[in-house]
Design brief:
The complex is a heterodimer of chains A (216) and B (106). By secondary structure, chain A is mainly alpha-helical. Chain A is 66% helix and 0% strand. Chain B is 73% helix and 0% strand.
Chain lengths: 216, 106
Amino acid sequence: MADLLFYLMAALATVAGVGVVVARSPVISVVSLLASFGALAVIYLLAGYQFLAAIQILVYGGAVMVLFLFTVMLLNLGDPDVTSGQTEPLFHGSRRSLIGLCTATVMGAAGLVAVLRVAWNEMPSVLAIPEGGLDPLDQLAAQMFTRYSLPFEAASVLLLATAVGVLVIAKRNRPGEKAFPSRAVAAEAAPTAPAAPQPASKPLPEPGPEPEEVLS
Amino acid sequence: MSVPTEHLLGLAAILFAIGMAGFLTRRNLIVVLMSIELMLNAANLTLVAGARMHSKVDELSLAGPILAIFVIAVAAVEAAVGLALVIALYRRKQTVSLDAVSELRD
């Protein structure tokens, strides 16, 4: 029963993965990716790693997918044909993509060979739950905070650095700021000062919180 | 019917190949990022398969899943930074196509 479920989930993950790559609309890609993540979470659960399955659902299915969907909706990329007006080619038509496709085909064929060469009843199932039960959470936590405490702390530093970095990258630039001049700012500044010298027409910085205050 | 380790590894290889094909051939930057997530998931599946392979009869090996948890953290970080870059790119060029960003190529 569990083995049948594994093959069902493996097929679902593969089909959903193909759906991510070939879908024209990014929304369908996101939903396919969600299905693929869910199928993999079931496989982790079948293998006995319940905590990893929960993390997979929470972090991937919850946080990362919401991030992707939020970006797609924010930039209004749901239907590319409507926004662009014509049907753009979906794939690169370059040598790079040809090489990539060949490598990926070889790799997928290797995976298929690995699956097909081993008969179904030849080996003991890796999905059999051992006598000690599923992964014990206390053991996992004990290892995480003793043996793997250095990577744990490094991950916390990485998350903090990411939060600051994302804030800096995605921050909207106010007029008068030099770094990363956006097209909207240029279009806004052009009609007000068509031929005046640059220092005289430089707009005053808007009153408001400084970026350092926002960050702190 | 039983599941040998090779089938887990084969599934991981197939998923990785799908992700790599999407990464190298698609133009949409968001789909490219999703392909990277797919490849990281394949790596996680490999870690789980290895942990199952080295588990004892009465005790599951935990080194693989712990590493997979760190991989998930790094994947979340990568998605956040990548999508912030997508938003910054859209502000500048009003597009998310990879063909629009080739300044470093030539």
